[in-house]
Structure formats: C-alpha cells, structure tokens
Specification:
Strand order of the largest sheet: 3-12-13-14
Helix content: 25-40%
Shape: globular
Number of helices: 16
Strand content: 15-25%
Structural class: alpha/beta
Distance between the termini: 21 Å
Order of helices and strands: EEEEHHEHEHEHEHHHEHEHHEHHHHEHEE
Length: 400
C-alpha cells in the first residue's frame, strides 16, 4: 500500500506492484494482518478512569451514581480522561469514534491529537420548563466547540435519552439539527425501565420523575404523528427526531413494529452487546435489525460499563448473537460501522480512502488459511494486546 502526502491511500496491491517514489518511507511490519482502522460506533471517553460506581445491574441507580461522579470532575480531569481514552482506542486498533458527552473534552482531544471521529454534544432536560435553558446552553456550547471541527472531526447533538429529555426538548433539538444540518445520536430503547416510563408512566424512572416534580411523558394526541402504542422508538418518531442522520444507541427493547419504524426513517444503530449484557438489559435483536436493512455499527460504550474498551470482543459477541460470519462481524467494526455514523471514506483500504489502518499480529497463518473468512476469523480472536501499530490519515498514532 502506498499512502499519499494527503493522508489518503494512493495505491493498493502486492509489494512488487505498488509504486515507491523516491524519498518514500518504507515500513516493513513483518507477518501481520493489515486491516482498516476499527470504527467504534459508541463511546463515552470523558468517563475514562471514572471510579467504580454502583452495580451496573440496577440501571437507574447506576445512572444517578455516574452523574454524581461526573459532577466532581474538573475540566482538566475531563480533558485528561478524553486524551487517555483516545490513546486507549488507538492502542486497540480503533481509528474512528462516535462519542457522546457533555464536557466538550473529547472533541478538543480529537482536534489536538489529530484523531478522527464525530462527537455528539449531549443535552438534558426532563422537565418541559427546562426547554429554554437547555436549548440556550446547547447552542452556546455548539458555538464554542465549532472551533475544533475539521475534515476529520465532526460535531453533532445528542438529546440524551427518553428518561432525561422531555418531549418538547426532543422536538426542539430535532428542529435545530435539521436547521443546522447536524447529525443526532440518542440512547434509545436501552432498558426495561425506559420502556416502562414511556409506555405507562411506571417503573423506577417514572418514580424518580414524580419525586422531582417532573410531569410524566405527555399525551401524544396533539402531535403531528400520534401513535396508538407507546414505545421509545415511536415516541422519538412522534417528536421528529428519527431520520437518516440519527444514530440510535442500544435499541435493545424493540419489537418488529419498532424495527419497521427505524427502517422507514433510515435510522442507524450503535449496537453495544457487552454493555447491554453488563447492565442486564437483554439482547438486542441484531439479526432482525440487519435483516431490515438498517445500518449497524458496534460500540463499546464506556469503561464505566464494560471496563476495557475491546471492540473485537464486542464484534465476537455480536457475531454469536446474530449468527454472523467472521467476515461480516469484522465489517460491522470497519466499513459498516463507518456507514452507520455517516463516514464514507474510511473503514476500507482502497485508493482514495483515508489511510486509517491498523496492523494486528494474529500469529503465523498457514497459506491454506489466508482466505478472507479465515483471516477475519484470526483477527476476531485477537484483542488490543495483538495490535502492533495504528495510523490515522497515514500518521502513526500508536506503536506497541
């Protein structure tokens, strides 16, 4: 492979067939598998190193504990966490992230360290009376963070989740995203407690809202697109949030009708199997999501949920869940993951694509085992410790 001065792939082929202009630096990596940089479709890098909180199986309580721990962090601690998290991604072969957070530290780290990704700025406000203050803060923050965007770093918005965002705030953020052409990410249909809140105004999230004097999700008969059955997916559709630029994170508690709604709106999915398992949310119907033609990527979620960020372990879990081939599972963390988060020139090694790639030591592969499926199988059985080096736009960002 020849990488051009612009950070893109110029030529691909066997060594003897690829040009080597005078002055070109030649890198001999030995017997490794060179593959596109991995794409992590859901991270919270600002949470890196956060002290252990409550048991992740009591999700509403765990959420409250994470919020308390976040409130104690200083701005510089957030920046340090983001830088560490980004370096951890590179050392695990990940070259692109789709991150959600509210500190702004991750987009700053991507800008300063030369990374690639999209950062969705979170907005919260479960009480309808918070609409104006939440939107003012969001717009001011987006204006401040715009300075960190570039050809490699994108900015989006994330109305966090149905248990932290009111219906009016969802609609306002959706209108802002349409107006300013911003991609959207939302935690959606993640837990039974979330579904209970939307469906019947019951459960632990509903109890917490009542205790804080927050009105329960409003009647939807006044909306442009009312629905007879209340689910988180149809709740978001009714408030104008779902669309081709929407990344739906988790999508565990979805039925066939929800999947049809997601497909109709051309939404994308960030599937986080190990986080779902850690929180005991259940298993997302990955096979059905893929069969519906939805764009799906794989994410790790945060270290607070899963400990070490190991995207290949997530791919193995997804493969087992949906009965995928090794090659298809690997595509979910490369090309298909890139498509899910709206990037069209990463996730593959081809002329014109960005030279984002990683070298993985899979041990000695016999010649008979070097077909695509066997190589993909060998890669999937590795993890961060097998990564030899990682490049972003042709620049080495990690070396073991």
């Amino acid at each position: 492979m020849l990488v051009g001065d612009d950070g893109r792939v110029a030529e691909v082929g066997v060594d003897s067939a690829v040009s080597c202009p005078e002055g070109t630096r030649v890198e001999a990596l030995g017997d490794v598998v060179l593959l596109p940089g991995l794409v992590n479709a859901h991270t919270h890098l600002e949470l890196t190193g956060l002290p252990d909180g409550e048991s992740p199986t009591d999700f509403p309580r765990w959420i409250r504990r994470i919020r308390e721990l976040k409130e104690r962090r200083t701005a510089e601690e957030y920046r340090a966490a983001a830088r560490t998290g980004l370096q951890d991604c590179w050392s695990a072969g990940v070259t692109t992230i789709a991150d959600t957070g509210d500190s702004g530290a991750v987009i700053e780290a991507l800008h300063q360290m030369g990374g690639r990704g999209i950062v969705y700025q979170e907005v919260f406000g479960p009480h309808p009376d918070q609409l104006r203050s939440s939107m003012v803060l969001l717009e001011r923050t987006l204006e401040r963070l715009e300075q960190f965007t570039s050809e490699r770093v994108r900015l989006g918005v994330s109305p966090h989740a149905p248990y932290t965002v009111s219906g009016p705030l969802y609609r306002a953020v959706g209108e802002l995203a349409d107006r300013d052409d911003l991609p959207v990410a939302v935690h959606l249909a993640e837990s039974p407690a979330e579904s209970e809140l939307i469906r019947s105004g019951a459960g632990p999230f509903a109890d917490a809202w009542r205790a804080r004097g927050i009105p329960l999700p409003e009647d939807t008969r006044h909306l442009d697109r009312p629905f007879p059955v209340r689910t988180p997916v149809r709740w978001l559709e009714a408030h104008g949030v779902l669309g081709p630029e929407t990344l739906c994170i988790h999508a565990v508690q979805v039925d066939a009708a929800d999947i049809a709604v997601l497909a109709k709106n051309d939404g994308a999915i960030a599937h986080c199997p190990l986080s779902n398992r850690a929180h005991q949310h259940g298993e997302a119907p990955l096979g059905a999501l893929l069969a519906a033609g939805l764009r799906v990527g794989i994410g790790t979620d945060s270290t607070a949920s899963v400990g070490r960020l190991d995207l290949l372990a997530e791919a193995r879990a997804a493969r087992s869940l949906a009965g995928l081939s090794a090659e298809r599972a690997l595509r979910l963390v490369t090309l298909e993951g890139a498509m899910a988060i709206g990037f069209t020139d990463i996730g593959l090694i081809a002329p014109g694509a960005w030279a984002d790639f990683t070298a993985v030591d899979c041990g000695s592969l016999p010649g008979a085992a070097r077909d695509a499926e066997s190589v993909a199988e060998a890669v999937l059985q590795t993890g961060p410790d097998a990564v030899v080096a990682t490049w972003v736009a042709g620049r080495e960002v990690y070396r073991a």
